[in-house]
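Suppose you are handed a protein chain with no further information: no name, no annotation, nothing but its sequence. What can you learn? This example shows the usual starting point.
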Amino acid sequence: MQPIRTFNVSPSLPPRLEPLRRLAYNLHWDWNVESKDLFRRLDPDLWESSHHNPVLMLGTISQGRLSEVVEDEGFLAQMDRAARQLEDYLQERSWYQKQRSQSPKECYAYFSAEFGLVDCLPVYSGGLGVLAGDHLKSASDLGLPLVGVGLLYQQGYFAQYLNADGWQQERYPINDFYNMPLHLERNADGSELRIAVDYPGRKVYARVWRVQVGTVPLYLLDTNIEPNNPYDHDITDQLYGGDIDMRIHQEIMLGIGGVQMLKALGYKVTAYHMNEGHAAFSALERIRMLIQEEGLSYADARQVVASSNIFTTHTPVPAGIDLFPPQKILDYLRYYAGIFDLPEEQFLGLGRENTGDLSGPFSMAVLALKMATFSNGVAQLHGVVSRQMFQGLWQKVPVEEVPIAAITNGVHARSCVAKSTQELYDRYLGPNWSSAPPDSQLWERMDAIPDEELWRNHERCRLDMILYVREHLVKHLRDRGASASEIAQAQEVLDPNVLTVGFARRFATYKRATLWMRDLERIRRILLGNKNRKVQFVIAGKAHPKDIPGKELIRDINHFIREQHLEKQVVFVPNYDIHISRLMVAGCDIWLNTPRRPREASGTSGMKAAMNGLPNLSVLDGWWDEADYVRTGWAIGHGENYEDPNYQDEVEANALYDLLEKEVVPLFYDHRDADGLPRPWVAKMKDAIRLNCPFFNTARMVREYAQRAYFPASDRYHTLTANNYAPAKELAEWKAKLADHWFNIKIKDVDVSAAADIEVNQTVAVKAKVDLATLTNKDVQVELYQGTIDANGDIVNAIPVVMDYQGDDTDGLSVYTANIIYTTSGLQGLSLRVLPKHPYLSNAYEPRLIAWAE
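A reasonable first move is to predict its three-dimensional structure. Written in structure tokens, the prediction is:
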């Protein structure tokens, strides 16, 4: 029976408890110890059963309990304290204001397909989403004028459970938006704020929900409304669910709908950040708006959009990129080609690396790269891999100069460090440890933390994790209808005094979740050892519902546990989420990571572990490749790349066993003082905190995004849109002229003063004559390109040297000169190149034109 009218019923609170409502609807409670403790204190059982959802708690708690706390002076004092902390947090003078006090009004929009903020908002799948959530939290901490844009999934990502055979099964619980920390955005007249997005033959409507993340609003689109048809209801049904048509529907809603939503909300965005390629269609919609609403040409509009877009790629392999068949793109987005006045093949070329490949798929990453002023990978090694992957977009540009930067990921410290550990750091390091930069003197206070106190705190965290795992397993087994003996066994898994290895991540095959099981006899010896030197594993993670090989890995682990009778030593924890992650990165003793290098773009779980004092045991991939992996953990291998994956697995599995047997286990057990304290291990824990916490932190990461991407992109937007877009029009017109005449440039003569044999630091004068055709010296920059010659005869480790323009000779050739020196001996070389130059360019590679001496 359908209702004739609906009501949104809000929790009824006594007036004295109204501050609880404000606290509940701002996710600041997730990283504020006082607020989180307050809700736990209100009703500990309800706090756990609600998945730590204070809004649901306030809606279901008994009025009797509310009447009790109204009379509880201690509770009221804590509530008032938490409320003041929130108000102080929202009002405090921020890092951003100090950096940009003189800048014009600006706003940054951060688009992501998923956001992992808290476990009661399950609209994330893994590391990408949690990183996006942490990005918003640190943007709030720093005071950035940033807004988040995403989709609100009715079923979110799936809940995982295992059948009796250990095979992953999926459930899709329905999210009750009205009992989550969400605000439904409304118009001034009280009606729902809605947008309408064009799809083939129809419009699809979406309403807007807001999650308040400290000072940062996150806006999420929801299509599960009338008058949409049932198929369109499901656009925001499941994260990464459905077929290719559903994926393109979702990405249209995220990118195109997201831009329309920001306009409807009244935001004047000056920089757009696409977190992965899912939101790349946003660029098309922005261009359309500028053409139809501002009267710009396609070239002028594209210039404005590309100058204010930022793109972050997270995948190190082509298979991880969203690719759509060309006909699909035309079926859904052909009308943009008409608005842009582009032939269809030229429009499809926006998403192709090779625009001449008329059958090639449309790549969302390529579209994003072509429409961005700043692009980056998420670790230094990932930056190298990304430059190699996408080098074809910048023809003739040396791979090391491909303009894809690297900003290493981080994690939000106050969200991932255990409560008791945070209190320890607050006491000895001071309250600013969570955002202090690496050069801060407070990190010198690490040694002031008594070894005994740090170790006993960690032992409590390990016990807390084990108690939760036991309780979680018992519930899982009961839900599955397991036998009484299985349930009794689950109540005794893991030993609070045994070295505990943690492994938790997506079960993608490249992460090699079963590498540690490669030699069954050897791992049995390590696990069981003698009774005083045992090892145990806690494992968690989900495979994508369609990833059968990933599911097989989960089943293999569970079969191994059963067949080897290791139920107490090895535990697979089902339905991995943010809450389980936080317990594991605090309660395990060491964090294991075994990806197939260089397939791990960054990885962040190991960063969270390090912040809690856990050493890492990992292949040198992602973030670990740039960490101090000697003082803060152990490296599996030395960063080798292999052609034969089977041989790689063999070598690295043996390296892992060697490290466990010869270094990890002895350091944990064999070097204890009379009080049982493993002081050398604790020293490694302190190094893990001191050296990793300040750098692999979203406070550092978001500051870096702000300084390297947001500030310059926003400034370029203001510059190019001034005077009715006159600078953008000038730059677009100049680029058109450049493209017409660039290939007429000829490097006529390069005169090098020195002979073939020179000495280190000897000055070499170089004079070049260049025929610039119809271009002028103001349009170009001429550079010498000097460096070492490698075994293939190529210049490597090159240094560009800008040449000075000396005027034109009698033949009309432009004359350039420069002096260079070589600071090292050996076979060295040089070349000469011409690059575009214009004061409005973001970098010389923006036009994707370059001329080399031949």
